[in-house]
Fold this sequence. Notes:
This protein has helices spanning 3-24, 67-75, 77-87, 89-102, 109-131; strands at 41-45, 62-66. The protein is mainly α. The termini are far apart. Residues 29, 31-32, 34, 65-66, 68-69 line the site of zinc ion.
Amino acid sequence: MNHLERKKLKKSMSLVFKQIIQLRDNNICQRCGKDVSNLGRIVSHLLPKSIYQSLAFEPKNAILTCHKCEAFWHISPIESFRFLEKEFPKLLKHLEYRRTEYGIHKVTDSQLFEIQKKLDQLLIKEKRKSCHR
Ligand SMILES: [Zn+2]
């Protein structure tokens, strides 16, 4: 894939990824508990996707937040980390493991295609679950 094709693929994948997180988190901000279905909602990455590219599309590395809580995330990284330690200790442990497993290497094209397949399957699963709520 050339640079442009990769960019396009990542863009469409991130749309699918957002849908998955929205469905999974039931339109509730995972930090303040506000219903964000009619407010702006954002998918926040716990470990930054700019550095940990292999975790950019990892559902465990993302939570749904409102705009206010998303800002907090970036303004207060230390407090954010404490919040994560307290609320999502298992998640952090998993991410730590994944971080050492994959490091900060760039994701290859074939890895990207594999992740895309997984995301499509996950979206179907989350849609099915949300129908039964
Ligand atoms: Zn919030």
